[in-house]
Design goal:
This protein is of the alpha+beta class and 403 residues long. The protein contains seven helices and 13 strands. A six-stranded antiparallel beta sheet has the order 6-5-4-9-12-13, with no helix packed on it.
Length: 403
């Protein structure tokens, strides 16, 4: 066997060992009967279930991602989702600096982050709970935390919905929202504590959110506004003939098709993340898609130029078109905030592309007004000259008739 193959096998063995080493039935305090490695964030769960009195004694192990962050484990009595979960959250006490463990109930308002998350009783029958740091005197990035809990369960109910996550900041005693990468959104599992059978929803591949963002930014956020600009400024150039219309239609069709693909990916991501909702982003996306669909349908009912209803169709077409472009741009920025790209190079690149388009539109708008004002002034001068000449000629005729 070649040395390179031996090194490869050794590396794989070490990798498997390190991956399975996360699941351990022994902690510094006690030994448990069962354990599982959770599918995300390098977390694990160990427990002992006492069926005689339906008591669950468990230990959750995870790690901080920042010194000012938090880490949480909880149970959802209804479904494997964040909404409705009862959680124990560990973080540094802002007063003493020691490790603090507080209970929280995650109702639907948590996702909106409109008000600080306040500690509330655990809600389930919690007998005791505690948390300790392993191998570190204080919270820091990478420091391991163990959360211990003893719960009284309903008899014969051993299938539990576990949720866990971690965040970057705590404001006072209020944890802030966690990152929204696919692995963070998939931090949930349903585990039968009697048989260790688990059900895990696999996270969506990282390429899908990226494709969703890229398609929507290119279509709703750039191509559709560019198509509006083409129709507004190129149709004034009579030398182009109907070319402006074909350019406008082609840009809008390509933009709407790409936007439809991005919208479909958004629906797919939502279906793979039950309990995770971004109401504003979803609402703006649906509104933009409906407006784009209405614009596409309007082409089938486009009256002829001589039709008396043509002016009403044009007013509708302009209103819906401008509304769709504005909704698309606003929702692109909203989506970047949802994905945590508020201060990224992706947002900078989009802002540069959008500002270039806006700058071109401003320049063309100014030029259009200059041409309009110049033409109005020339028309006024021509009318004045025609009016003045006619008056002189009439005066001569009156004088001749009198003579």
């Amino acid at each position: 066997m070649s040395p390179s193959l031996l090194l490869l096998l050794l590396f794989l063995g070490l990798w498997v060992t390190s991956a399975t080493a996360r699941c351990t039935i022994t902690t510094f305090a006690k030994t448990y009967k069962k354990c599982v490695t959770l599918p995300t964030q390098g977390a694990s769960l160990a427990w002992t279930y006492h069926p005689l009195n339906a008591t669950l004694d468990l230990a959750f192990s995870g790690s901080f991602i920042s010194p000012s962050g938090w880490i949480a484990w909880g149970l959802n009595p209804d479904s494997p989702a964040m909404t409705g979960a009862h959680a124990l959250v560990a973080f540094s006490d802002p007063t003493s600096g020691g490790l603090l463990l507080l209970p929280f109930v995650l109702d639907p308002s948590v996702k909106l982050q409109r008000v600080p998350l306040l500690s509330r009783p655990f809600g389930l029958h919690l007998l005791s709970s505690s948390a300790v740091l392993r191998g570190a005197p204080s919270a820091r990035a990478g420091a391991e935390v163990q959360i211990f809990a003893i719960l009284k369960l309903s008899p014969n109910r051993t299938r539990l919905h576990h949720v866990w996550n971690r965040g970057l900041y705590v404001q006072g005693y209020s944890p802030t929202i966690h990152p929204t990468a696919p692995s963070d959104l998939a931090s949930r599992a349903t585990i039968d504590i009697a048989s260790t059978a688990s059900e895990v929803t696999p996270p969506a591949p990282d390429a899908i959110p990226s494709a969703h963002a890229a398609l929507n930014a290119a279509s709703w956020g750039f191509l559709l506004p560019a198509g509006v600009a083409v129709a507004r400024y190129l149709r004034q150039r009579t030398s182009l003939g109907p070319s402006w219309f074909y350019a406008h239609a082609a840009t809008q069709i390509v933009g709407f098709l790409l936007g439809t693909a991005g919208f479909a990916l958004g629906i797919f991501l939502g279906s793979r993340s039950p309990g995770v909702e971004y109401g504003l982003h979803r609402g703006l996306g649906v509104a933009a898609f409906v407006a784009g669909g209405l614009q596409s349908a309007a082409l089938l009912f486009r009256p002829k130029t001589t039709n008396r209803y043509r002016k009403y169709w044009k007013s509708y077409h302009h209103f819906v078109g401008y509304g769709c472009a504005v909704l698309g741009v606003v929702n692109v920025f909203q989506g970047m905030e949802v994905m945590g790209l508020g201060r990224s190079y992706w947002k900078l690149a989009y802002c540069l592309a959008l500002s270039t388009l806006v700058g071109v539109c401003v320049a063309l708008e100014v030029n259009s007004w200059v041409v309009f004002c110049r033409k109005a002034e020339e028309d006024m001068t021509a009318v004045t000259r025609e009016g003045g000449g006619g008056g002189v000629e009439s005066h001569h005729q009156v004088v001749k008739g009198t003579a």
